[in-house]
Design brief:
The structure is a homodimer. By secondary structure, chain A is of the alpha+beta class. Chain A has 2 domains: 64 residues, Orthogonal Bundle (Arc Repressor Mutant, subunit A), CATH 1.10.10.10; 90 residues, Umud Fragment, subunit A (Ribbon). Helices cover 26% and strands 29% of the residues of chain A. Chain A is built from 6 helices and 10 strands. Chain A has a 6-stranded antiparallel beta sheet with strand order 5-6-10-7-8-9, with no helix packed on it. In chain A, a hairpin with a 2-residue loop joins β8 and β9. The longest helix of chain A is centred in the first third of the chain and has 15 residues. The radius of gyration of chain A is 24 Å and the shape is elongated. Chain A starts with 6 loop residues before the first helix and ends with a strand. At the A-B interface, β3, α6, β5, β7 and β8 of A face β3, α6, β5, β7 and β8 of B. β5 of chain A pairs parallel with β3 of chain B. The structure holds a DNA duplex.
Chain lengths: 195, 195
DNA sequence: AATATAACTGAACATTCGTTCATTATGCAA
DNA sequence: TTGCATAATGAACGAATGTTCAGTTATATT
């Protein structure tokens, strides 16, 4: 029986390094990280991790961490499913929120929400919306639109009479733009951070 | 007058590389990226970018992209402020959503929300909550708690009689745990993705 | 047109990189 | 204990790294 080298432990260390430095460690750095005295020990270890499918290497041999390692947040089940055990944690997929939420980074912006015009859609004042600039909105997309020289969030609805902008708050009425309709972008995600 | 080297253009290219490869480019790679025929041209360019405060280098000279370059999403004003011009875009700060939302990656999980018990707090079924495992909840924190062998979201409220779990939906009543109170974690953020 | 300044090239340097090799240490089974 | 497979060491190699230096090209101003 071979000696037990705790691969999961190493992966955890690699992930930690990645999160701190935002880059893959060199062999020398891994040597210190794992407590080896030879870079070749790292080489052997990486071979195993590669066989196990935990990572790949790029053209120059540098480790290229796979999403489950790169990722910063683990995706688990639903609230109803409750909290995971230690083993479930290990196996859970992981993603970065950036990759998950932002398809088009160069055209995506964060805006803070003012006003309560979309409160019934679960968008509260102070929330942050991720807005993609450029694409034509689809039916019932939430858009950032200029109405009466002011920018607000509204549903984008096409009907027989053309286009109307509909709030998600009975306090307000829908708006049918007279001549020009300026669409800033389409809301792709809503983010609310506590504290 | 010196020749006009478009620094903003270079930064954009750097950012693009970073997003694709998830790492800083080497000098050789930057040489190709910028269309130079000498790595030393890259060296000179980096000196400028460094002077301009656009980036720093690590111990081995590798470029360490600053948050405005690293970042994936640019932070802009509020919805009321409307949409930015091209120049404003360039100057806007940028952050990664991971850094912004997740303080403690190893103890943070994503859960999908089932049920409407927190609908008045703007948390809808299907939303994703970022839950931090471990910390003691503060007054009025939203927590993932086990109630009657089922996990749900509730406000955590300490009062004279002890602790009660309060929903944000008039359809439901608050709950005062009899003996044990199991707290899975504290909700740090809510995310809603459209599509 | 002449000139000064900056951008760029190309070669060389020491260092570090990932990798290979031969050797030693370690733990498990026979 | 004796084997034996594996882990780890330490030295060496070529390639690539970031950097320096000297020289060339290009541009804007005089």
């Amino acid at each position: 029986m071979p000696r037990d080298i705790r691969l999961a432990e190493k992966i955890r260390q690699l992930r930690h390094f990645w999160r701190q430095e935002r880059r893959a460690p060199s062999y020398a750095e891994m040597m210190e990280l794992f407590g080896y005295k030879s870079r070749n020990a790292v080489f052997g270890l990486l071979l195993k991790l590669e066989e196990a499918g935990c990572l790949t290497k790029d053209d120059h041999g540098r480790v290229a961490l796979l999403p489950p390692i790169t990722g910063t947040v683990r995706v688990l089940g639903s609230v109803a499913a409750g909290f995971p055990t230690q083993e479930e944690e290990q196996e859970a997929d992981a993603i970065t929120l950036d990759e998950y939420l932002v398809k088009n980074p160069d055209n995506t912006f964060m805006l803070t929400v003012r006003g309560d015009s979309m409160i019934n859609a679960g968008i509260l004042p102070g929330d942050i919306v991720l807005v993609e600039k450029g694409p034509r909105p689809n039916q019932n997309d939430i858009v950032v639109a200029r109405v009466d020289d002011e920018w607000t969030l509204k549903y984008y609805v096409r009907d027989a009479a053309g286009v109307r902008l509909e709030p998600a708050n009975p306090k307000y009425r829908f708006i049918r733009p007279q001549r020009s309709l300026e669409i800033g972008g389409v809301v792709r995600a809503v983010i609310r951070k506590y504290n």
